[in-house]
């Protein structure tokens, strides 16, 4: 294919791919929020002394981390309706991504909390602070600084994981690319363009990660 033909191919595919990119960003952001909302309480449940609190959290984390995200999408979108639980494609996609990310984020948060010295807990208790006050005012600010890199890696991976929601007919970037490829005799340039877009989005979130790390380290110092 000559350069003129390549330019025409990309120009024709640009509107649908740009629209798909917008949906990809929206799905990733919604799943990030959902993952964080699930990850924090799950981490606290896994840190609990009570077995009744730890057991369901451990089961959830094990199931989400031990099974492919694609299978989780199929279960939520295709199997749950057979037992009367039906989700629209967008909700099913965001739910699956959030559940998957929440499991990994919970482990990052739990590990960071466990990494805070026990002396911090004892010093806070000696000052009259209770468990939750110590956790909120003393431990979590320190743990968050430690957890940001691993949490950011999980969140950045959501950008690429959104490509899987095309299996539930959501027109994000990958599905938009497949639809453009269907009418082309040369699919490689379109797939390469999609890969570059995913890469640029990942670089954007990596820059946000570095910014957060600098802010948290400055506050710590």
Automatic annotation (TrEMBL):
Record-linked InterPro entries: AA_ABC_transptr_permease_3TM (IPR010065), ArtM/GltK/GlnP/TcyL/YhdX-like (IPR043429), MetI-like (IPR000515), MetI-like_sf (IPR035906)
UniProt entry keywords in alphabetical sequence: Amino-acid transport, Cell membrane, Membrane, Transmembrane, Transmembrane helix, Transport
Membrane topology: Multi-pass membrane protein
Tree of life domain: Bacteria
Compartments it resides in: Cell inner membrane; Cell membrane
Family matches, as PANTHER family: L-CYSTINE TRANSPORT SYSTEM PERMEASE PROTEIN TCYL, MEMBRANE COMPONENT OF AMINO ACID ABC TRANSPORTER
Family statement drawn from the similarity comment of this UniProt entry: Belongs to the binding-protein-dependent transport system permease family. HisMQ subfamily.
NCBIfam families in the record: HEQRo_perm_3TM
Listed name of the protein: ABC transporter permease subunit
């Amino acid at each position: 294919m000559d350069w003129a033909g390549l330019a025409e191919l990309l120009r024709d595919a640009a509107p649908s791919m740009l629209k798909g990119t917008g949906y990809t960003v929206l799905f990733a952001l919604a799943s990030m929020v959902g993952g964080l909302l699930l990850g924090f309480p799950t981490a606290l449940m896994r840190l609990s002394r009570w077995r009744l609190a730890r057991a369901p959290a451990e089961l959830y984390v094990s199931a989400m981390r031990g099974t492919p995200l694609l299978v989780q999408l199929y279960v939520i979108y295709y199997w749950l309706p057979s037992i009367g639980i039906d989700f629209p494609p967008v909700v099913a996609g965001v739910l699956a991504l959030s559940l998957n990310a929440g499991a990994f984020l919970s482990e990052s948060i739990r590990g960071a909390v466990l990494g805070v010295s026990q002396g911090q807990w004892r010093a806070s208790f000696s000052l009259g602070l209770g468990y939750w006050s110590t956790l909120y005012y003393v431990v979590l600010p320190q743990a968050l600084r430690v957890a940001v890199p691993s949490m950011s890696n999980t969140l950045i991976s959501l950008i690429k994981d959104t490509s899987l929601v095309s299996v539930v007919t959501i027109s994000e970037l990958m599905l938009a690319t497949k639809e453009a490829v269907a009418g082309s005799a040369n699919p490689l340039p379109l797939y390469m363009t999609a890969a570059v877009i995913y890469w640029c989005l990942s670089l954007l979130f990596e820059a946000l990660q570095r910014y957060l790390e600098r802010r948290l380290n400055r506050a710590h110092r």
